[in-house]
Amino acid sequence: EPEVTQTPSHQVTQMGQEVILRCVPISNHLYFYWYRQILGQKVEFLVSFYNNEISEKSEIFDDQFSVERPDGSNFTLKIRSTKLEDSAMYFCASSETPQGAEQYFGPGTRLTVT
Amino acid sequence: SQQGEEDPQALSIQEGENATMNCSYKTSINNLQWYRQNSGRGLVHLILIRSNEREKHSGRLRVTLDTSKKSSSLLITASRAADTASYFCATDARTGGFKTIFGAGTRLFVKA
């Protein structure tokens, strides 16, 4: 069964450093998403992406964040200058169609900022 | 409260009992979905109900949607220890883009 994969599974970085989280969505999906989940809290929408551009972003997704689909398979989330409060699980998801479609989630990347 | 708030926050039941979780939301929606998350893992889609539907079944799951009250419920019948997880409702808001908002979740613990 096709699945969304994410790398790395755990990333430790120092405050102020840049990190890139990588995702490989399901191959025939066209809509891509990033979410984050601070430990013990709810899953928060960050951004959706379609046709090589951002469709929607939340207030969390400020200038420190960017997304890219550098090739036909990868979908990346970059945090330019990490802060302590960026420590969280980051989930990538993809879907065949937008609203009204099941989103398939990856296993997540645990980001720890020290 | 925020879009997609579940109650109860935590629920502990015996195996074989039914578990009911509720979700409320604030804005108009296209559809509402329920997801499950095992501790520290990714989310798994359970069921989707569209705004023009009132009830939907999938195996041991039954979902209802009341758009007039902006609420939904998820019923898991004959629960099993393996159902122990967190359950989240998620709504696709009617915005110009594609945005899914998750609730805070209900932690379900099923005792064997």
Overview of the molecule:
The complex is a heterodimer of chains A (about 110) and B (about 110). Chain A is mainly beta. Chain A has strands at about 5, 10-15, 20-25, 30-35, 45-50, 55, 65-70, 75-80, 90-95, 105, 110-114. Chain A has no helices and 11 strands. The mean pLDDT of chain A is about 95. Chain B is an all-beta fold. The model of chain B has no long low-confidence stretch (mean pLDDT about 90). Classes of the chains: A mainly beta (about 110), B mainly beta (about 110). Chains A and B meet through strand 4, strand 5, strand 6, strand 9 and strand 10 of A and strand 4, strand 5, strand 9 and strand 10 of B.
What are the low-pLDDT stretches of chain B, counting only 5+ consecutive residues below 50? none
Number of helices of chain A: 0
Portion of residues within helices of chain A: under 10%
Radius of gyration of chain B: 13 Å
Brief write-up:
The complex is a heterodimer of chains A (114) and B (112). Chain A is built from no helices and 11 strands.
What structural keywords apply?
heterodimer; A: 114 residues; mainly beta; 7-stranded mixed beta sheet; 4-stranded antiparallel beta sheet; 50% strand; globular; B: 112 residues; 6-stranded mixed beta sheet; 5-stranded antiparallel beta sheet; 0% helix
How would you summarize the topology of this molecule?
The complex is a heterodimer of chains A (114) and B (112).
Chain A: E1 5-7, E2 10-13, E3 19-24, E4 31-37, E5 43-50, E6 53-57, E7 65-68, E8 75-79, E9 88-95, E10 104-105, E11 109-113
Parallel strand pairs in A: 2-11
Antiparallel strand pairs in A: 1-3, 3-8, 4-5, 4-9, 5-6, 7-8, 9-10, 9-11
Chain B: E1 5-7, E2 10-14, E3 19-24, E4 29-37, E5 43-50, E6 55-58, E7 61-66, E8 71-76, E9 85-93, E10 100-102, E11 106-111
Parallel strand pairs in B: 2-11
Antiparallel strand pairs in B: 1-3, 3-8, 4-5, 4-9, 6-7, 7-8, 9-10, 9-11
